[in-house]
């Protein structure tokens, strides 16, 4: 419904755009060059001199009669408008284009409207503000995800009990269990203090990786843009080192090289691979998955395990029956 109204408004407005609509954004029915008594070849200095000469003769302060003063004010406004248009290179270019192509109503109207209504803001300021806003959103989102993970671990009995044991071993709960101190505190304050200790232990001891990892300054767009040349240089240096060590000198792969090849074969990003636990990465290294033949065997075995697991899964069976009965591209509202 909204698009229909917009279409009707556009159809009503567009036919009304003609040469007079465009000229109203400039000097009206007058020619800006004729108002200042100059030619189109005039320079900026010529335009300035012409405006001073013509304006000095028709300035409203030179007239005492009310009607003459009113006419002089209208004339002076026209002169000032012509001067503002012709002294600005881009504005003058749009005006000259309109004089040379008077039949292009819509293009001339758009150029005139854009020049008149769009604010003259430095693009660098716009980019800086945009990048700052994105960085602020990244900072807020990173800490929100991290706090969400800490809240989950602190409320899960398995991790909560483990954090309590660590806190007791390190004597962090000594102050919380001090009976003299507890007498001066309410049950809510005691509970809040214990929660803070558990949260602190989880933050320090828990190795949270991936999306929910503790944010750093390197996650911000501003820092990433500043560090991009450095990171690019580091990557090129590493790649040249790879070519020299592996291709030219024919050296054996180091542990870092093996992890890199395994990660590439699994089509995982650095963050995804780092999110894996140490035991899983060590298992991949023991299986020598950086070798193509070993990786193919491992992948076939894993795909077979997934197939068997899905075949015995009731949820996956229901999903397959749904696809068989309804197809992948259908949608119903009867459930």
From TrEMBL:
Residues in J domain copies: 31-99
Segment forming the signal sequence: 1-19
GO CC term, one of those recorded: endoplasmic reticulum membrane
Membrane topology classification: Multi-pass membrane protein
Main location: membrane
Coiled-coil intervals, chain numbering: none
Keyword Hydrolase carried by entry: no
CDD domains in alphabetical order: DnaJ
Superkingdom of origin organism: Eukaryota
InterPro entries named among the record's database cross-references: DnaJ_domain, DnaJ_domain_CS, DNAJC25-like, J_dom_sf
Gene Ontology terms describing biological process: protein folding
Ranges annotated as spanning the membrane: 221-244
Subcellular localization, as worded in the UniProt entry: Membrane
Keywords linked to the UniProt accession: Chaperone, Membrane, Signal, Transmembrane, Transmembrane helix
Family statement: Belongs to the DNAJC25 family.
Name recorded for this polypeptide: DnaJ homolog subfamily C member 25 homolog
Organism: Hyalella azteca (Amphipod)
Lineage: Eukaryota, Metazoa, Ecdysozoa, Arthropoda, Crustacea
Gene name tied to this protein: LOC108665279
């Amino acid at each position: 419904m909204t698009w229909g109204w917009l279409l009707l408004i556009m159809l009503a407005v567009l036919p009304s755009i003609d040469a007079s609509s465009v000229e109203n954004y400039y000097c009206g029915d007058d020619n800006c060059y004729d108002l200042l008594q100059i030619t189109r070849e005039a320079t900026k200095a010529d335009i300035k001199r012409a405006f001073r000469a013509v304006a000095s003769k028709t300035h409203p302060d030179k007239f005492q009669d009310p009607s003459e003063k009113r006419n002089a004010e209208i004339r002076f406004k026209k002169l000032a408008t012509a001067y503002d248009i012709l002294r600005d290179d881009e504005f003058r270019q749009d005006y000259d284009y309109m004089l040379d192509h008077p039949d292009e109503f819509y293009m001339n109207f758009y150029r005139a409207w854009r020049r008149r209504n769009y604010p003259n803001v430095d693009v660098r300021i716009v980019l800086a503000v945009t990048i700052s806003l994105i960085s602020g959103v990244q900072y807020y989102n990173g800490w929100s995800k991290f706090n969400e993970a800490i809240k989950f671990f602190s409320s899960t009995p398995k991790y909560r009990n483990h954090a309590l044991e660590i806190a007791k071993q390190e004597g962090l709960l000594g102050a919380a269990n001090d009976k003299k101190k507890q007498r001066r505190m309410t049950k809510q304050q005691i509970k809040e203090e214990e929660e803070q200790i558990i949260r602190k232990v989880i933050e320090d001891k828990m190795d949270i990786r991936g999306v929910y990892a503790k944010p750093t300054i390197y996650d911000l767009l501003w820092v990433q843009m500043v560090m991009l040349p450095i990171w690019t240089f580091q990557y090129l240096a590493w790649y040249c080192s790879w070519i020299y060590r592996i291709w030219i000198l024919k050296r054996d792969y180091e542990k870092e090289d093996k992890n890199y090849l395994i990660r590439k074969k699994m089509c995982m990003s650095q963050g995804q691979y780092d999110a894996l636990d140490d035991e899983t990465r060590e298992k991949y290294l023991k299986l020598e998955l950086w070798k193509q033949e070993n990786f193919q065997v491992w992948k076939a075995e894993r795909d077979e395990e997934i197939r068997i697991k899905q075949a015995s899964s009731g949820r996956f069976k229901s999903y397959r029956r749904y696809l068989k009965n309804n197809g992948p591209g259908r949608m119903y509202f009867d459930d």
